[in-house]
C-alpha cells in the first residue's frame, strides 16, 4: 500500500512551474504539500470548466450522443428573454436584500457600540439567524408569507389593510426572498460593522464633540468615512453571494410549480440566474444550453467584479 | 441630576430598540415552534396561531415515518465532518507553504488560487456531474466530500492568518534544531494557529452542512441524502398536505448548527470581525 | 508520538486515496440497478394504489425485495437526471402521462416491453392508452396504469348557498357550457364574497386544450400551438379572468388547500386522480364534495405508465410484477386507493368501482368518471409538446396572476415558441 502511494508524489514533482534554480528536488515537499488542492482543482475545476466550454458548443441531453451545434447555443442565449429576466430578478432581489440589510446592520452596530451592558449577549442573539439551515428557514418563511394563513397578512389585516398574495405576485416574491436574506445576514454584518466601529480612535469623537458636532453630524463626518473599507468589504461579499442566490428562492417557491423544480414561482419572478441554469440543465435536460447559460452567468459575475474592483481602487486613491 | 436621568432614559431607549431587533431575529424560531406543534388544519385556519399547540409528538411521529430523518442527519454529519477534517489538513498545509516558504512558481500558483476563488461553481457543475457519473459516485456521499476536500478560500485565509501568527524566528530556531518541513508544520505552525483552525473548521462545517444546490442534483438515491435535501424532498412531497410535520422537520434541522454555534460562538464572532477589518 | 515527514505525508495521501477509493468502493457496492433480490420501484404520491403496492410486495416477497419509493417534486427531471447519473437507477419507474412523449426519444434507456411478451396483454387495455406507450421505432416502453378523465368536482353546500344547482345531475345538466359555467362563477362570487369558482386560469386553458384532439406539435414536427384549437382555449381562459372567477392562489400550494378547506375554492376541474389529492390534502372536508360532468365534453388530464429501465437485472420478474399490479382487479383497487381510473375495461364492472364514496357524500363517482372516460378525445402527443406548450402556459398564467395584457401575452408566447421551435428544429 505504502509503495503504491509513493507514485502520486512523483507525478506532483512535474507540476508546471518556471525553471527552478536549485532543481525541484529541493522543493518537492513544498509542492507535495500544496498538491492536494491543485489535484482536486484540476479534476473538479479546471477539466470541468474546459469541458463545459466544449459542451456549450454542442447539443446534448446527457443520455444520447452529443451533437455539434457551433455557436447556436450562444445565439439563442443572447435572444433568450428568460435569461435576461433572470439577470434582472437576481439584481432586484440582491438590491432589495442588500441595501436594507446594510442600513439595518449599520444602525444595529452603532447602537451596539454605544450599549455598554449585555454587548456579548446581543452579539450572540443577532448572529443567531446566520447559523440556521437555509432550507429549513426558507420553509419557515414560506409559512410566514402565506396568503391565507401567514403571519404577515394577518398583521396587515389586523391594521385594516388588504391581504397581499406574497408568493404569487412578482414584487411579493422578490420582497419575500429579499426579506429572508436580510433577516439572515443583518446580524452577521452588524457584527462586522461593530468590529470596524471599535477600531475608530476615540480621540476623533472627542475632537468632534469639542467642535460642537451633534450625533448625526458625527456619524456622517467621522463614522461613515472611517467605515468605508468595511462597508466596501461587506458590499463586495454580498454582491458575490447575492449574484449566485439559489437556495432561498428555490425552497421558498418549489411548491408553486408542478412542472419545474426551479421555476422561481408565478411569472418566474423569483427565478435567479443560478435557478435558471439549473432549470435549463436538469429540468429540461439540456446540458449543452445549460453550459452556455453558465458561461453567461460567469460573464455577469466578472462584470460585477470589475465594478467592485473599481470601487475598491477608488478607495486607494482617496 | 437631569442629565443622569436623561442618559438613563437614553440607555433605556437604546436597549429597547436593541431588544426589538433581538425579537425579530428570534421570531422565526418561535414561529417554527408554533407551527410544529399544530396539525395542518389548525395551521390552515384563521386567525393564525400565536401560541404553541399540543401536536408536536404526532408531527414528530409522522416525520420519522415519512423520511429517514436520523439517517439523513447522520449523512450530513458524515459529509460536513469529513470535509472539515480534510479541509483543515490540506488547507493549513498549503497555507503554511504559501505563508512561509519561497519556491519557484509560488507567485503564479498563488495568483491562480485567487482566480479559482472567483470561478462560479455552476460553471463546473455539469461536467462534474458527468465525471462523477463515470466514476460511479453519483448518489453517494463521496460526490460531496471529494471535490470539497480542499478549497481556495481556506488556503487564502489561513495564509493570511499564518503570516502574522507564526514568527519567522520560531521557524528559524526549529530549523537550527534540525526540524524538517513536516515537523515544523506539526510542532511549530499548528499549535500557534489553533484558533484560526477552529474558525476555519466551524466555518467549513456550517458551509458544508448548509450546502444544498449540488447535493440536490448529485444525491439521486432518494433513500440516502443529506438533511437539506431530505427537508426539501419533504417539503416537495408533503409541503401541501402535512404542514405541521414539515415544520417539525425544519425545526429539528436547525438544532445541530445551533449546538455548534453555542460551542464556538466566541470564536466565530471574534474571528469573523477580525477577518473583515484586516 | 513522533511523526516522521514521510509518515505524515503518507498519512495525508492515504487520506486522499482512501476517500477516493472509498467513493469508488461505495460506487461499486451499489451498482446501477438491482442486486439479485432487490428491486426498486419509483413512483410519486398517488401514482399507484398503496394497497396494490403492499400486496405486490407481499406476493412477490419470496423472490424479490420490492422497494417502492415515492419521489416528490418534479418527477420527470429527477428520473432523467438519475438516468444520466448512471447510478441508483430504479428497476421499475412510473412515467407520468403528460411526460410520456418526452421520454420516447430516450426509449433506449428502457426495456422494450414487447421483448417480454407485452403483446399478449394488449387486448385487455384501452387501445389509445396502449399506443401512447410506444415509441416511433415501435418499441414499447410504458405499460398503462390509469387514464385521467376530468370532471367537475365541487362543494355541495357552497353551491347550494350560492343559489347554484347543487345536485350532481343538475350541475351536469345546467353547467354544460363554458358560458354557463362562467356565469355560475359570477353568481358564486356575488353571493359569497371572497369565493372563486376556480383556482387559476390555467385550469380553464389546459382543460380546454385537453378536451380536443390536438396539442402543440403535430406528427410532422410542425408547431400547431398558434392554431385555432389553442387560440380558442386561450380566449376562454382570458374570459375567465375578465369575469373575475379565478382566485389569485397557486395550484398545489398550502394556501390553496387552506382555501379549499374554508370553502373559498368550492370547485375544480380535476381528473379522477385529483380526487385523491383532495382527500389527502384536506381530509376535514369529507362529505362536502360531489362530482359532476365538466362543461362541454370530458378532457383527459394525465394518466400514467410503468416502465422497466435498462438497469434492471431481472426484467422478466419485473414484467411479471407490473402486469400483475396493473391487471383489472388491481386497477379497480387503484381507483379505490388513489382515484386512478382503470385503463382496463374489465375493471369497470367490478364491485369496488360501484362503491359509494363517503368523501363525496355517498356518491358513486364512477357514474361520472366512467362515461367521461368513454368520450375522451385521443390526441397525438409529441416529444416537443412539453417544451412548446410551456411558454403558452407561462404566459396565460401571467395574464391570470399578474394581470398582463392578453394580446401582449399571446404575442410574447408566440415569439418565445418560435424561438424554441427554431432551437429544437421544429418547423412553424
UniProtKB/TrEMBL annotation, chain A:
InterPro entries reported for this sequence: ABC_transporter_permease, MetI-like, MetI-like_sf
Pfam families attached to this UniProt entry: BPD_transp_1
Subcellular location: Cell membrane
UniProt keyword Lipid metabolism present: no
Transmembrane segments: 30-57, 91-112, 124-151, 171-195, 287-307
Protein family: Belongs to the binding-protein-dependent transport system permease family.
Protein name according to UniProt: Cytochrome C biogenesis protein
Species whose genome carries this gene: Streptomyces griseoruber
Organism lineage: Bacteria, Bacillati, Actinomycetota, Actinomycetes, Kitasatosporales
UniProtKB/TrEMBL annotation, chain B:
First and last residue of the signal peptide: none
Alphabetical list of Pfam families matching this protein: BPD_transp_1
Intracellular or extracellular location(s): Cell membrane
GO cellular component: plasma membrane
PROSITE patterns, per database record: ABC_TM1
The ABC transmembrane type-1 domain, residue ranges: 73-264
Main location: membrane
Claim: Transmembrane helix is one of the keywords in the record: yes
Membrane spanning residue stretches: 12-33, 77-99, 108-131, 137-157, 185-206, 243-265
The keyword Ribosomal protein is annotated on this UniProt entry: no
UniProt record similarity statement: Belongs to the binding-protein-dependent transport system permease family.
Protein name as it appears in the record: Sugar ABC transporter permease
TrEMBL record, chain C:
Domain of life the protein comes from: Bacteria
Transmembrane domains' residue ranges: none
Entry-linked PROSITE patterns: PROKAR_LIPOPROTEIN (PS51257), TAT (PS51318)
Alphabetized SUPFAM superfamilies for the sequence: Periplasmic binding protein-like II
Signal peptide extent: 1-22
Protein name: Sugar ABC transporter substrate-binding protein
Keywords: Signal
InterPro entries per UniProt: Bact_solute-bd_prot1 (IPR050490), SBP (IPR006059), TAT_signal (IPR006311)
Keyword Signal: yes
Amino acid at each position: 500500500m505504502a509503495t503504491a502511494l509513493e507514485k502520486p508524489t512523483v507525478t506532483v514533482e512535474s507540476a508546471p512551474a518556471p525553471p527552478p534554480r536549485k532543481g525541484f528536488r529541493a522543493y518537492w515537499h513544498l509542492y507535495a504539500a500544496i498538491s492536494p488542492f491543485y489535484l482536486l482543482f484540476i479534476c473538479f475545476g479546471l477539466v470541468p470548466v474546459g469541458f463545459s466550454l466544449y459542451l456549450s458548443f454542442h447539443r446534448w441531453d446527457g443520455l444520447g450522443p452529443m451533437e455539434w451545434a457551433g455557436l447556436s447555443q450562444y445565439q439563442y442565449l443572447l435572444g433568450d428573454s428568460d435569461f435576461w429576466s433572470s439577470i434582472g430578478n437576481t439584481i432586484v432581489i440582491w438590491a432589495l436584500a442588500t441595501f436594507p440589510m446594510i442600513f439595518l446592520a449599520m444602525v444595529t452596530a452603532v447602537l451596539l457600540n454605544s450599549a455598554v451592558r449585555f454587548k456579548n449577549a446581543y452579539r450572540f442573539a443577532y448572529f443567531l439567524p446566520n447559523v440556521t439551515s437555509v432550507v429549513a428557514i426558507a420553509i419557515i418563511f414560506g409559512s410566514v408569507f402565506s396568503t391565507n394563513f401567514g403571519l404577515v397578512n394577518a398583521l396587515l389585516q389586523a391594521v385594516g389593510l388588504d391581504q397581499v398574495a406574497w408568493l404569487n405576485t412578482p414584487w411579493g416574491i422578490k420582497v419575500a426572498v429579499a426579506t429572508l436574506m436580510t433577516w439572515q445576514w443583518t446580524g452577521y454584518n452588524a457584527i462586522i460593522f461593530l468590529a470596524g466601529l471599535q477600531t475608530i480612535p476615540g480621540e476623533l469623537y472627542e475632537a468632534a464633540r469639542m467642535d460642537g458636532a451633534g450625533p448625526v453630524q458625527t456619524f456622517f463626518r467621522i463614522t461613515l468615512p472611517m467605515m468605508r473599507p468595511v462597508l466596501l468589504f461587506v458590499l463586495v461579499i454580498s454582491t458575490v453571494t447575492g449574484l449566485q442566490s439559489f437556495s432561498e428562492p428555490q425552497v421558498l417557491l418549489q411548491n408553486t410549480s408542478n412542472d419545474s423544480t426551479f421555476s422561481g414561482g408565478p411569472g418566474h419572478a423569483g427565478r435567479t440566474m443560478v435557478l435558471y441554469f439549473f432549470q435549463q440543465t436538469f429540468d429540461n435536460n439540456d446540458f449543452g444550453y445549460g453550459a452556455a447559460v453558465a458561461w453567461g452567468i460567469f460573464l455577469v459575475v466578472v462584470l460585477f467584479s470589475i465594478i467592485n474592483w473599481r470601487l475598491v481602487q477608488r478607495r486607494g486613491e482617496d | 441630576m437631569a442629565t443622569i436621568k436623561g442618559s438613563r432614559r437614553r440607555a433605556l431607549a437604546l436597549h429597547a430598540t436593541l431588544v426589538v431587533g433581538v425579537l425579530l431575529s428570534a421570531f422565526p424560531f418561535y414561529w417554527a415552534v408554533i407551527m410544529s406543534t399544530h396539525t395542518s388544519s389548525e395551521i390552515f385556519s384563521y386567525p393564525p396561531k400565536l401560541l404553541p399547540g399540543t401536536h408536536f409528538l404526532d408531527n414528530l411521529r409522522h416525520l420519522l415515518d415519512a423520511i429517514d430523518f436520523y439517517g439523513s442527519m447522520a449523512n450530513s454529519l458524515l459529509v460536513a465532518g469529513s470535509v472539515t477534517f480534510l479541509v483543515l489538513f490540506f488547507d493549513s498545509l498549503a497555507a503554511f507553504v504559501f505563508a512561509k516558504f519561497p519556491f519557484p512558481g509560488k507567485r503564479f500558483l498563488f495568483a491562480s488560487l485567487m482566480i479559482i476563488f472567483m470561478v462560479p461553481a455552476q460553471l463546473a457543475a455539469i461536467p462534474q456531474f458527468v465525471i462523477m457519473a463515470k466514476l460511479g459516485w453519483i448518489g453517494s456521499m463521496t460526490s460531496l466530500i471529494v471535490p470539497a476536500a480542499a478549497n481556495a478560500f481556506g488556503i487564502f485565509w489561513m495564509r493570511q492568518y499564518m503570516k502574522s501568527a507564526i514568527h519567522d524566528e520560531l521557524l528559524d530556531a526549529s530549523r537550527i534544531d534540525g526540524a524538517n518541513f513536516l515537523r515544523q508544520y506539526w510542532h511549530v505552525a499548528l499549535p500557534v494557529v489553533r484558533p484560526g483552525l477552529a474558525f476555519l473548521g466551524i466555518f467549513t462545517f456550517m458551509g458544508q452542512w448548509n450546502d444544498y444546490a449540488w447535493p440536490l442534483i448529485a444525491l439521486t438515491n432518494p433513500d440516502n441524502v443529506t438533511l437539506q435535501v431530505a427537508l426539501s424532498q419533504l417539503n416537495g412531497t408533503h409541503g401541501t398536505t402535512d404542514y405541521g410535520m414539515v415544520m417539525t422537520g425544519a425545526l429539528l434541522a436547525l438544532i445541530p448548527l445551533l449546538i455548534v454555534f453555542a460551542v464556538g460562538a466566541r470564536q466565530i464572532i471574534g474571528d469573523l470581525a477580525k477577518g473583515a477589518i484586516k | 508520538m513522533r511523526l516522521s515527514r514521510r509518515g505524515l505525508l503518507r498519512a495525508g495521501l492515504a487520506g486522499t486515496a482512501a476517500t477516493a477509493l472509498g467513493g469508488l468502493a461505495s460506487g461499486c457496492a451499489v451498482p446501477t440497478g438491482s442486486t439479485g433480490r432487490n428491486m426498486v420501484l419509483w413512483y410519486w404520491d398517488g401514482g399507484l394504489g398503496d394497497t396494490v403496492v403492499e400486496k405486490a410486495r407481499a406476493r412477490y416477497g419470496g423472490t424479490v425485495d420490492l422497494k417502492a419509493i415515492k419521489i416528490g417534486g418534479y418527477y420527470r427531471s429527477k428520473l432523467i437526471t438519475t438516468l444520466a447519473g448512471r447510478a441508483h437507477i430504479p428497476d421499475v419507474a412510473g412515467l407520468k402521462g403528460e411526460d410520456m412523449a418526452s421520454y420516447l426519444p430516450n426509449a433506449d434507456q428502457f426495456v422494450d416491453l414487447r421483448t417480454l411478451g407485452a403483446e399478449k396483454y394488449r387486448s385487455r387495455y384501452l387501445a389509445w392508452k396502449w399506443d401512447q406507450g410506444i415509441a416511433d421505432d415501435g418499441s414499447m416502453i410504458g405499460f398503462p396504469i390509469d387514464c385521467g378523465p376530468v370532471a367537475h368536482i365541487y362543494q355541495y353546500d357552497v353551491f347550494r348557498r350560492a343559489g347554484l344547482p347543487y345536485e350532481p345531475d343538475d350541475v351536469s345538466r345546467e353547467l354544460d357550457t363554458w358560458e354557463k359555467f362562467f356565469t355560475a362563477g359570477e353568481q358564486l362570487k356575488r353571493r359569497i364574497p371572497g369565493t372563486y369558482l376556480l383556482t387559476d386560469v390555467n385550469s380553464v386553458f389546459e382543460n380546454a386544450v385537453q378536451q380536443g384532439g390536438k396539442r402543440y406539435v403535430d406528427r410532422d414536427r410542425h408547431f400547431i400551438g398558434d392554431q385555432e384549437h389553442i387560440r380558442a382555449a386561450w380566449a376562454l381562459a382570458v374570459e375567465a379572468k375578465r369575469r373575475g372567477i379565478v382566485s389569485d392562489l397557486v395550484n398545489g400550494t398550502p394556501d390553496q388547500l387552506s382555501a379549499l378547506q374554508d370553502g373559498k375554492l368550492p370547485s375544480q376541474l380535476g381528473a379522477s386522480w385529483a380526487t385523491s389529492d383532495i382527500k389527502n390534502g384536506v381530509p376535514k372536508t369529507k362529505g362536502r364534495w360531489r362530482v359532476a360532468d365538466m362543461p362541454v365534453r370530458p378532457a383527459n388530464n394525465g394518466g400514467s405508465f410503468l416502465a422497466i429501465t435498462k438497469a434492471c437485472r431481472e426484467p422478466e420478474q419485473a414484467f411479471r410484477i407490473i402486469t400483475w399490479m396493473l391487471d383489472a382487479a388491481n386497477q379497480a383497487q387503484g381507483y379505490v386507493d388513489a382515484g386512478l381510473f382503470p385503463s382496463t375495461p374489465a375493471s369497470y364492472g367490478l364491485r369496488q368501482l360501484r362503491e359509494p364514496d363517503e368523501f363525496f357524500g355517498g356518491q358513486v363517482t364512477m357514474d361520472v368518471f366512467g362515461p367521461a372516460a368513454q368520450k375522451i378525445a385521443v390526441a397525438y402527443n409529441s416529444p416537443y409538446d412539453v417544451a412548446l406548450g410551456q411558454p403558452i402556459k407561462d404566459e396565460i398564467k401571467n395574464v391570470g396572476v399578474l394581470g398582463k395584457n392578453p394580446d401582449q401575452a399571446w404575442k410574447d408566447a408566440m415569439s418565445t415558441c418560435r424561438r424554441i421551435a427554431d432551437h429544437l428544429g421544429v418547423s412553424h
